[in-house]
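Quick check before the chapter quiz. The format below is the same one you will see on the exam, so make sure you can read both the input and the output lines.
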Amino acid sequence: MTPTSIPLHVSKLRRWRLPLISLGVALAVGATWAVTSKTGGDKTAAEKKVAAGAAEKVAPIFELASVDISHVEGRELRVNLPISGSLLPLNQATVRSKVAAEVREVLVQEGMSVKKGQVIARFDGADLRARLTAQDAAFDEAQAKLSLAQKNRRSNETLLKQNYISQNAFDTSNNSVELANASLKSAQAQREIAQLALADTIIKAPVDGIISKRNVQVGEKVSPDSPLVSIVDLAQLTLEAQVPASEIPRIKIGQEVSFRVDGFEQRVFSGKVARINPSAEAGSRSMTVYIAVENRDLSLKGGMFAKGNLTLKRNAELPTIPLNALRKQDGQDVVYAVVNNQVQEKKVKLGLRNEDEGFVQVVEGLDAGATVLSAKLEGVKVGSKVKLPEVPHAPSSLADTKTSSNKG
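Here is the expected output.
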């Protein structure tokens, strides 16, 4: 069967229908994409806005520096009174001449150490030896006279019993014995004086110490009470400190003192209050406190200037914080402690306070090892999240040290 012929106008109509349908489909797809794209864009913007709001609601984390925090440590705290004064030897002596004589020998110089009983000088004792010889002779003479008088008394006593002499004659012989005995005692005393005078020509140190001054030279003639040498004992010193009279009620015998001396910057010396002068100095209205200082190594010298502190009060070891860490909340002392990287308020009961050092002890509310804010930071409050500074860790062993060096 021969196919039916298609008219010409129908054939032309079919050729144009296909492009039109394709164009319509394309327009529909484009419209659908545009609508979908617009809706998707609006949804993304909304999500972004929600995310931004959520981000605003997340609390900030404050990163702290090492100067912003303090670690609570258990330590002893003291309340001190600043003092200053001069160091003086507790024991010192000026050796003086007891006789008139010429200096024959001086065995010491300034700065030399001497022991008690050590010979430090000698005098010419020729005159004193001659005087002692004369006194020895006078003593022997008096002793001989006493012996004769005693012999006469014994004879007269026998004669008196036989009635050959009177009682008066016997009394006279008895009185002669008493006079001879008195003369002997006088001669003996004079001899002892001469012996002491001769012994005083040898000068000995009365105490252990150091020669601080020599006043005589060989060949000089000295008289009684002339100063020869000065000796100071540096084993024990006294720090004489002037303090205001208003502070005296707080100062007690036995309180500890620590001080430094120029030239010994790295060394701290110690002493204890030994005495308190009962009278105030005229004009200054200050009072002198005498502090006993042990100086066994003799490093300190007389006349040195000392500056330090007198401990008025001291407490046993307790948790201690800087005064800067204290805050007031409704009249209560509080601190901001960092617990699990969050700021918490801790009420505390305070103990001894040292304004000079800037510390105070905590009796209740904090334990040693806690971390507190020692600076008032803007924006940081109770509940704030914080980040503590990292603490560098030292190598735990020699192997770690070597490993670190090799990596470097």
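If your answer matched, good. Residues 1-43, 396-408 have pLDDT under 50 and may be disordered.
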